[in-house]
Design goal:
The complex is a heterodimer. Chain A is globular. By secondary structure, chain A is α/β, with parallel strands linked by helices. In chain A, about 30% of the residues lie in helices and about 25% in strands. In chain A, the strands form two sheets. Chain A has an eight-stranded mixed sheet, sandwiched between helices. Chain A has a four-stranded antiparallel sheet with strand order 2-1-4-5. Chain B is α/β, with parallel strands linked by helices. In chain B, β9 and β10 form a beta hairpin. The chains are: A alpha/beta, B alpha/beta. Chains A and B meet through α5, α6, α7, α8 and α9 of A and α7, α8, α9, α10 and α11 of B.
Chain lengths: ~325, ~325
């Protein structure tokens, strides 16, 4: 068995809630609570969840854009949680991020050439401006953008073009691993498909591994090899993409899938409409965090916190009940 | 057939900018029956939101616009009124009372410095001239009817204290407070999570079955269309390019744009690891529309000399299915 590219163990990010004149800690927002997973070389792990589930916090913690409260993050066997500034710079030559919003994640005063070239400059990969320009041109080509756009600024680009610039910037240092945080969420439908295809091509050509974060499980299905479903900072179910989509074993996954609207009007199916909202992570329910909205919840769900247990090949779920769904 | 609630004829919205005139909406005509839901589908820049705002008489808020055409609404008192010809003052009596609108981002449409209760009562008191205590009572009743838990406390809350789904419910409550006969819903579920989206769609369907109001549902999401509407209109570059019953448009799209858009959707019931058939290029800017059919530069069926020559007319390909494509009949014959 090949060693994991990325291994995350018991990752936790709690934010302190401080109150009072002399602020003291009165509680914690448990944004991410005991999350463990690994990613193999050339594998795409999808991280699916609704807003407030902690998926973005997980993605950023993995790259240490957010300092995790505790837990282990090992990249190629090396623990990255203790890295100093120099170590982090080396780490980010191999691990990069594509942000959700291509409007706020590109500096409006910089040209496309400067944006894509910046990581090359920071990492000292192409210190010579001429060589850097050549590298930027080939990067733009790899994301199917014309070199005529080199001198443009973000406001002169469409949403799809901006996201391509964001992807080219992440690819600039030739990373092995990319965190893609909702890369298509802000794009139009006809542009979404272009960017999804681009990510698939890049994965195949560059042997990239990815943590693909999305609230849209239909999008994820086209990109991910495995999917982890998160709710209130915890992994509810993790397994092969096909098994998760076609035979979900956790009640939350089942509800999430059934809520995705189907464009085919002749395929009316039974909808599971979840009641209420996601509870506050400052005051999560006892036991299973999903039990307050779960239609299968029993008394025991309030007492015992379910652990991930095997339910098929490489397929795990955190649910006390084995008879549902 | 029942006489339509809303008759829109040749509606056009033109913005004057420094760079010249921009036709955001051109030649839009359709009918909306009482109790019917029609989905207006399009990508950003297609003009779908501008059309919704024009019907509400709200386009002037952002930029000076010139409107032409007619939008005749059957009023509660039995008369019919062309909303495009009304003065701002006369439109105020209709807006909120006969036609109401809900928006995509409820946080930016609600007033952050007033309580939810105040904002619901405002509309009722303004249009129905009832006392504040009667308005408060009806606001409470409305929230309870919309299935909001702990409605009394919700009335005292400020928008920032509520979740996204709850804010959208409050927006719906404000819109419904005067029992409008037409609701214009502009992407009301786009900013919400899928599970909350499902709740809001259920709620709208439930309210509609009780009140019999008509809904013009503006969205970019074909999945939502099938969920809520009976008929759909697809917009591209300011024009309706296809319109018909949801089932016909989905199963036999006649306009190449509609077909390509449906094919490019990521769906749960598709094969794994397959490439999505993407539409090349991007949506044209309304200030620089291509000649002829606006979709022809991205269309794989486009024929030089035919598609780039004139803007095609909206033709009927069956009794209630309209399409704007010069090649629709030959394409339909080639691929059923």
């Amino acid at each position: 068995m090949t060693p994991s590219l990325l291994q995350v163990k018991n990752l936790r990010k709690w934010y302190e809630i401080r109150r009072g004149v002399l602020p003291r800690v009165v509680g914690h927002v448990r944004a991410v609570d005991d999350v463990s997973f690994d990613i193999q070389p050339n594998e795409v792990l999808g991280l699916a969840g609704e807003s407030g589930s902690g998926k973005t916090t997980i993605g950023r913690s993995v790259l240490r854009l957010i300092e995790p409260s505790s837990g282990l993050i090992a990249f190629k066997g090396e623990d990255v949680t203790g890295l100093d500034a120099n170590g982090l710079r080396r780490f980010r030559r191999q691990a990069q991020i594509v942000f959700q919003d291509p409007y706020s994640s590109l500096d409006p005063r910089m040209t496309v050439e400067q944006i894509v070239g910046e990581p090359l400059r920071v990492q000292g990969i192409a210190p010579d401006p001429h060589a850097r320009r050549q590298r930027v041109e080939s990067l733009l080509e790899s994301v199917s953008m014309s070199r005529q756009l080199l001198m443009r600024r973000p406001r002169e680009l469409s949403g799809g073009q901006r996201q391509r610039v964001g992807i080219a910037r992440a690819l600039a240092v030739d990373p092995e691993f990319i965190v893609a945080d909702e890369p298509v969420a802000s794009l139009d439908v006809s542009i979404q498909a272009q960017v999804i295809n681009l990510l698939q091509d890049l994965k195949a050509q560059l042997h990239l591994s990815m943590l693909f974060i999305s609230h849209d499980i239909a999008v994820m299905r086209h990109v991910a090899d495995r999917i982890a479903v998160v709710y209130l900072g915890k992994i509810m179910e993790i397994g092969p993409a096909r098994a998760i989509c076609e035979a979900p074993r956790h009640p939350y996954t089942e509800a999430l899938l059934s809520a995705v609207p189907n464009p085919d009007p002749s395929q009316r199916r039974q909808r599971i409409v979840l009641q209420g909202d996601i509870p506050s992570p400052a005051n999560p329910p006892t036991g299973c965090v999903f039990r307050t909205r779960c239609r299968y919840a029993i008394g025991e769900c309030a007492q015992t916190q379910p652990q991930l247990q095997s339910t098929g090949p490489k397929h795990y779920k955190a649910c006390l009940r084995n008879d549902v769904p | 057939m029942k006489s339509p609630l809303l008759e829109v004829r040749d509606l056009a919205v033109r913005f004057s900018t420094r760079g010249g005139n921009v036709d955001a909406v051109s030649g839009v005509s359709f009918d909306l029956a009482p109790g019917e839901t029609v989905a207006l589908v399009g990508e950003s820049g297609s003009g779908k939101s501008t059309l919704g705002l024009a019907l509400m008489g709200l386009t002037d808020v952002t930029r000076p616009a010139s409107l032409s055409g007619a939008a005749t609404l059957a009023l509660k008192n039995g008369t019919r009124q062309d909303m495009m010809k009304l003065s701002d003052r006369a439109m105020q009596a209709i807006r909120g009372n006969e036609v109401a609108m809900i928006f995509q981002e409820p946080m930016s449409s609600l007033n952050p410095v007033h309580t939810v209760g105040w904002q619901i009562c405002e509309a009722v008191m303004c249009h129905q001239g009832i006392s504040s205590s009667a308005a408060a009572a009806s606001a409470l009743e409305l929230l309870e009817k919309l299935g909001i838990p702990d409605a009394g406390r919700c009335l005292q809350a400020y928008p920032h204290q509520l979740s996204g789904g709850m804010r959208q419910r409050v927006m719906i409550a404000i819109a419904l407070s005067c029992q409008p006969s037409l609701l214009i819903a502009d992407e009301p579920t786009t900013a919400l999570d899928v599970t909350v989206q499902a709740q809001i769609l259920e709620l709208l369907k439930h309210v509609q079955s009780e009140t019999g109001m008509a809904i013009l549902f503006i969205t970019h999401n074909f999945g939502v269309v099938a969920e809520i509407a009976q008929r759909t209109m697809v917009m591209y570059a300011g024009r309706i390019v296809e319109a018909g019953p949801v089932g016909d448009v989905f199963h036999a799209p006649r306009m190449p744009y509609t077909r390509a858009l449906l094919e490019s959707l990521p769906r749960l019931d598709r094969g794994f690891g397959t490439r999505l058939p993407a539409i090349p290029g991007q949506v044209p800017s309304p200030s620089a529309l291509p000649s002829g059919c606006a979709f022809h530069p991205r269309c794989r069926h486009a024929v030089p000399g035919r598609c780039d020559d004139r803007i095609p007319t909206l033709e009927a390909c069956s009794s209630d299915h309209l399409v704007r494509c010069v090649r629709w009949s030959e394409l339909a014959a080639a691929a059923p």
